[in-house]
Structure formats: C-alpha cells, structure tokens
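agent: user wants the structure for Membrane carboxypeptidase (Penicillin-binding protein) from Paramicrobacterium humi. delegating to structure tool.
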Amino acid sequence: MPEQKRTARGVLGGLLGFVGLSAAAGVLATAAVTPALAMAGMSANSAIGVFDSLPEYLEISPLMEKSNIYAKDGDKNVLLASFYEQNREEVQWDQISQYLKDAAVATEDNRFYDHGGIDLTGTLRAVVSNTVGDDVQGGSSITQQYVKNVLVQECERLSEDEEALRKCYEEAAGVDYARKLKEMRYAVGLEKKYSKDEILRGYLNISGFGGVIYGVQSAANYYFGTSAKDVTLAQAATLIGMVNNPNLLRLDKPDNPDNGKDNGYALTKKRRDVVLQAMLHYGKITQKQYDEAIETKIEPKITQPKGGCASAGSNAYFCDYVTKLIRNDPAFGATASDRVATLKRGGLDIYTSLDLRLQKTEGDALHAAVPSHIDGVNLGGTAVTIEPGTGRVLAMVQNTAYSNAKKPGYTSVNYNTDQDYGGSSGFQPGSTWKTMVLVDWLLEGHSINETVNGTRRSFSYDTCNGPVTWPGGPKNAGDGGGGPGGVFTVQHGMTQSINTVLAAMGEKLDLCDIAQVAKDLGAHRADGEPLSTAYPTALIGTSEDTIAPLSMANAYATLAAGGKHCEPRAIDKIVQSDGSEMQVPGQDCNQAIPENVAATAVQTLTKVMTQGTGRGGMVWGQPIFGKTGTTDNYKDTWLVTATTKAANAVWVGNTLTKNFTPMNRTWINGSLGSQIKFGLTRTILSKTIELYGADQFPQADSNLTRRILKEVPSVAGMSVEQATSTLKGAGFGVSVSDEQVPSTVQAGLVDHSDPAGGARVSAGSSVTLYVSNGKGQAVPNVVGQTYHDAEQALKSAGFGNVKRAGECTEPGNPAKDAGKVATQDPAADATANPDTAITLTMYCDDKGNGR
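agent: tool returned. relaying tokens verbatim.
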C-alpha cells in the first residue's frame, strides 16, 4: 500500500540515505559485473565504510522441510502422514522443470546470469521510489530475494515467541536502507560462494506459495497434483507468478470472489500471463507455446498433504506412537520442543516397522467385533503385535477413531501404549500376569511337575517389604480362576488358570522377585511407577490396574525369542534431508532370562492353548503359546499369544475403572464381550503365520520338568496340628480322614498317614492323616495252630468274633500242616477293634476238609 505523504525533513533524511547508498552502490557496480573483484583493495574508501561492519557471507541453514512417516505394504513404502510448519520438499536441480527456471529468471530477474548478485538498476529505482514516498518497490535480484527469504526463515527457526519473530522479521524483510545494504552485501557474498544454478535452485526451494506451502515441489503437488519436474508451461508460469504475492494469488480458495473458480482465478491468471509474456519477450518460449499456454484455463487440482496423524486413518494411533517416540528421545533434540521442531522442520523420512498387511487384518477384525461406541458402556478394544527378537511393532489398532473430539467413540488416547507415549494409565492384566510367576518359579529351579497345595486356604508370603498373608486366599471361578482348588502340578494349574495354585506357588517365591522378573521381560506400569511388591494379589494379576497391552505383548515376545528382551521400537530407518541416514535410536536388546527357562515356560504355556483356557483362540496344528486373562467381575478380558515370529496382545474391556460393565454380561455384535478375544486372536494368529510363518519351539529343560520325589516324614503318634505342621514344612499338602481308626495309639493322635512315613512321593503331594480312636488291640499270631487252639487264643486276647473261611488251602507239607491255620485276617500284630471279625483260613486234611 502507498505510504503516507512524507515530511520535508523525512524526505531530506531519505535523500541523504540515498546519497550514501548511491555511493556504496557505485562501488558495488563492480560486484554487479565481476563479483570476484568486489571490495578488493577498497576498504579505505569512505564510500564503502558502511560495509566494513557487515558480514560478507550469509550462513544458510538447512531449509525447513516437512517430515514424512512411512509404513510398509510388502516391498512398498506407503506414506502415513506428514508433519510441517512449512510444507516443503527440497529438490535438486535436475528435479526442477526448465519452465520453472526460465519463468523465474524472465519474470523476477532477467539479468540474473549477467550480474554479480545485485540488480543495480532495479535497486536504485526502488530506492528513489521509496525515498520520495511512492509505492514500496522491491527492486531485488533473485539473489537478493533469496537472501531475504533465508533471513526470514532464520527468524522463524530461531525466534522463541511472537514478539521476537515480529522484530526479527522486520529486520530481515523491512524496506529501510540499512536492510538493503545488508541484503546487497550478502548477495555479493553468495555469488562468490555459490554458482548461479545453485542460487536459483535455492530460491525455487525456499519461496513461499501461499499458506504453509513452500518450494516448487510442494507447490506443484499441492496445487496441480504433479511434481516440479513434470509441470506444464502454464502451470510453471502460474506458480512463479504466485511468488509475487503468494497469499493473494493462492489457488485453494475457490470461493474467493476476487480470485476464485467463478472468475477463473482472475488475479492469478493476470499475473501468470505477465510471466508468459516475459518468457516470450526474453526468448524462453516460442510464440506457439505462448499462444497455447495463454489460452489454458487455470484448473487447480488441490492435493491435500497428509498433515498430522489424524490423516493416517486407522493407522493414526501407531502414527501417534511414532511421534511420541521422537518427542521423548534425546537423539532428536535436547528438549521436547527441540524434538517437535526436528519433526516439523527437519525434512526426515521416517520408515517404520508397521506392516500394513497385518495392520489391515487386525483393524478390520477389531472394528467388526468391537464397535467404537455402545451407549452406556465405556468400551475399549485393542490389538498390538511385536516381532520377537527385535521389538519391532508390526501392528497397532484400537476400536475408537483418533481425534481430540469430546464425543463417544473418539479419543486421542492410545490404549495400547504407556502414558508417556500417548497412552492411558493401562489396565488390569488378570491371569496373563501369571506368566511372570511361572518364569520366576522356573528361575528358582522349581519344576512344572511339582505338586502344590492349591486348596482354598490362607497363604503366607515373604517379600522385600516383610512377610504378608492372604487370609482365605483367592477365589477359583471362571476363566480367570480355573475352577475348584486342590493339590495339582504347576503345569495343571497354569493350563487351567487355577488361582489357588498360583497362590501356593507364591509361598515358595518372593513377590519382589516376581516384580523384577516382569520388568526384565518387558512388563511394567503404564504410568512409570514401580510395580507393586506388597500385595499377593499380584500373583493372579489383580494388584495392578496400570499395564498397557504393548507391555504385555513385549513380555511374551521376550519368551518367544528365547529370553531375549528388546525394547519396543517402531522406527526402522530415518533418512535426513541431505540423503544421509540418521542412527535409529531405541535398539536395546539383552538376554533377560536363560534360554532353558524361556523354553520351559513356552512349552508350559502351549498347553494353555491346546488343553486349557486358551483353546478358543488356537489355530490348530501350529506352534503357539499364550495365556488368557480375566479380571474381577469381567471388567477386562485378555488373550496374549505368541509364535516364534510374532507376539500379540488382545484386550477388550472397560476404559474406565468406575461404573464399568461386566464383559460376560454384555452382548457385542452377537457375541459376549468376554468371548471376543478368542475370535480376534484366531484371525490375527492366522494372518501372522501366513505372513511370517511359525517355527517349532525349543524343548523344555528336563531339569525343570522332572518329577520331584521327597520322603514323607513319619508323623504317627503326633497330634493332628503337629503332624500338619511337620508335613507342610516338608512341602506336602495335608488332609485328615473323617473317620477315626482303631489303634493302640492314644485317642486323638495320628495313628498313621497315607502315603506312609518313609515313602518317596512327588513333592507337594497331599498326605492323608488317620487319627486313632484309642480302642485298637494287637491281633495275636495264630498261624500253624489248630482251629480250636487259635479260637481260644483269639478269645483270650479279647477278639470274640472268630470265623472259619469257607475254603481250605492245600498244605505244602500235609503231615505237618494238615488241619492247621494257614492264614489269618487281620494279620498278626495288626491293630483292630475287639469286635473286629477275625477270619481263619485252614489247611485241608487228608479228606479235603478244613477242621
């Protein structure tokens, strides 16, 4: 716009400035022709003294470029989203159409290839015009315009707030004489340092084209759906014409009454035609080319960039996870704001681990089974898959739509991840956590075939925080509890997910060790706090409400990789704007547990899928291990599975702890909410096996599957309490027979046990105690006596109920044994009640009778 009429004093000052500038310009005339000689030998000349304090060379920082996040679809990289403050993609000289180069030179600086960086004629004309108060004139060469754009970009890159940006911009792009001198000085320096083609390329890459569109490549793509290399003559002239006033001449406002679709983008067309005329005038195009281009209508094909993760559709939550990885990693900058700036300005091509083939299968299956919203239910559902041995995240889906909108079915919270990576506070893992107990059990040298007393009772534990008890122990019910308690092997307890078996295993372990094992495997709280070590409910996965599905998938991936734990990672490769590769952070792997322990745990958990609670999710005939999980009142349901190639966690439940809806009473798309995990898992496993295969798991360690035999202590004559304590102390379960037995032992004391004292049986077996009634007597030995003598002896001992067996036994020595007692029942010295029937079997006499 025209400036206000200037005062005489202002005009005088301006003229004095003009005189000084003109004197300097006289010296710079040399630079206009031969830049290599500029300023040579003239430092003492007062006409250029003003330049002594100005830096000669302009440091050109890398251009602000958009960063792109890619996923993999087979062998093809697919763009998920772009991030930018300036939507720019820098291109090389041979990637720019000659039409664009010629249009820029013909229109903006027809003497570009002749002068030394300064359009002296245009500059002086602009100075005179600005001095006397006419319209502000540019009068700058392409090199000078490039200098101004570089200075402006530095302002945008370095300014910390709006006020600093405004001041910096005024200094860089103002119309005062000092700025013009500085611009000229820099232009001369640039011409010494760079070739003309390099300067023109820089100019075409840095120029703005309206809004956040910068550089000819992004402009060509955005406005015409093509590249800077493939634009037509008419398109090239249109784009270069826009440089004159980008926001006025932009083509993405079709409803603009002054420059819109209805009037054929009149303002932009007028400027385009000026460009075409200049190109014809300076011999850049033929008359025929001009005639064809001038008749061409401006018909933009706006191609919206995939800006931000919201544009990534069903891949948005994974995209968000990648951005959070960058924001949290010092490799991308010293502070969080620096890292965001790197993402939005750094021109990074970020190639991720996401496999769109698996992602589509998981997403389609999840959305078909779990809708984004059901009235009255805070419904959530996720599936996430990790590659064992690398930690690469292969798929990550969620039932909701990615958005900050405050309405049902929409959220920007990623239920799969930890809080620092865009996630929620996590969920209760239920019985999937029992795997952590199993691994610690094996690390302590216990066998999966050890028997434990999983009867419902009170339990006592050791922890690093001191001893704790679990009065009454856990309940056993449903998928999460595995039915009634009892004395079972650890294998059976895991297969059927019996809570009391896990509670009994915990008595031989340390809760703090179990928490450490979980951490080593990769399972941790989503809020970053330490895992609980004070509550025995951790043994069955109900003490933590803060575990993310990605964390659980990672822990099972560690087992599938033979105990090798790798931190989850989503970035495979990063290519910087200069074409070099940036070192990818977060590739930390370590051997978390021994291979033999991992192999044994895996083999134990395969039976969960083939014989136990995971059968509904099994792909039969394939090597798969896993564990189901259901939390109190079916708030959360889980199935975590793995092959050697992929580990997956499926979670379906309530996103809020309060006012939740039990999944076993909620019908969702024709299925009970508690059963959805099975169908989802089958679909996902089938796809992972199709894509990656599945190898057989290593065999379990025989030392960790052995049957453990222990000698039963002798408890005869002890009180029931003392006998129970002795047996439990030796690692056996105890039960007491309901009926007392005849015995010479004092009534109320233990007569004997079964198995008997001294027997060797499986560790943890149950021993039954038989209590004496105090009425027992020893049966006399009457074998070899005549029936009459035997009867008298027994009656004399108090046993009046004597019987003869119906059949006799042939004697080995008839002369000696005929007609005598062969056997007696009860046997000699057995303890029996006085009224117990004593049966005598006789040897046959010479007539075949037993007398």
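agent: one observation worth passing along. The domain at 709-771 is CATH 3.30.10.20 (Trypsin Inhibitor V; Chain A).
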